[in-house]
Amino acid sequence: MALVATASVTSDVPRSTGSIPGHGPVSRPNMVSVGTIVWLASELMFFAGLFAMYFTIRSVEPDLWAEKTQILNVPYASVNTIILVISSVWCQLGVHAAEHGKAHRGTAKLLAVKEWGMREWYVLTYLFGAIFVSGQVLEYSELVHENITLSSDPYGSVFYLTTGFHALHVTGGLLAFLLIIGRTFTTRHYSHAQAAGAVVTSYYWHFVDVVWIALFATIYLLQ
Q1: Are 81 and 72 contacting, i.e. CB atoms less than 8 angstroms apart?
Q2: How far apart are the first and last CA of the chain?
Q3: Where are stretches of biased composition, namely Polar residues (predicted)?
Q4: DSSP 146
Q5: With CB atoms 3.0 to 4.6 Å apart as the test, which of 1, 73, 121, 216 could cross-link to 94 if both were Cys?
């Protein structure tokens, strides 16, 4: 009888549920998240190498740096940086919606921002990211007119390598957003695995955002 009573009391204890309906609390690390963090650590080493290259060449070509950095359009780059930083805010709002199992706004109107789900916030993030990359391409075209190219001199080589590799990473993030957004149209039930995909994509996006802030401070502010 004691055993039965114990089992009855245990069964009456409410079980905690995860944010996404049908999924309990996570009891072990998500391997996708762990793998993404390890990969981003290797990417950090890659960009650290680019920074080392930038400062090394700058130290042996101070006169060239003093001449070429005067051509940079700092206000323009500042606005472009703000656009990328704001995109991370939209991305995090999308993560919040994903963690609560809200893939999209459902039947709510588009202007009902409070009802937005992960899809809407990620679309907005994608648009801001695309504007950032387009702004960088426009800046490149202006610098080419100023005779700053990849092969013009050491400054041009370092500038395009550092900012260009970052632009490629941003483009990769935009493709990831398209994949995550597309999955919300192809599945009926938003699962924990899909939410995990949205979260790790945000890790990557925040990473490229922080890297750009460091690049912007190094290239445009320190000069």
Answers
A1: no
A2: 79
A3: 7-19
A4: T
A5: 121
Q: Residue 100 burial (CB < 10 Å; 0-12/13-18/19+)?
A: middle
| Whole-number Cα distances in Å, 96 to 48, 104, 122 | 31, 12, 11
Alpha helices in the chain (DSSP H): 2-12, 31-60, 62-68, 74-99, 118-145, 154-186, 192-216
pLDDT tens-digit profile of 195-212?
888 999 999 999 999 999
CA distance linking residue 116 with residue 109, whole number of Å: 9
Angle formed by the axes of helices 154-186 and 192-216, nearest 10°: 160
CA distance 135 to 175: 18
Model pTM? Answer: 0.83
Give 124's Cβ-side CA count (13 Å radius).
Answer: 22
Q: How far apart are CA 56 and CA 176, in angstroms?
A: 34
- Of 83, 46, 69, residue with least CA distance to 153: 69
Q: How far apart are alpha carbons 108 and 104 in whole angstroms?
A: 9
Note the pLDDT tens digit of each residue in 70-128: 999 999 999 999 999 999 999 999 999 988 888 888 888 888 888 898 999 999 999 99
**Whole-angstrom distance, CA of residue 89 vs CA of residue 102:** 17
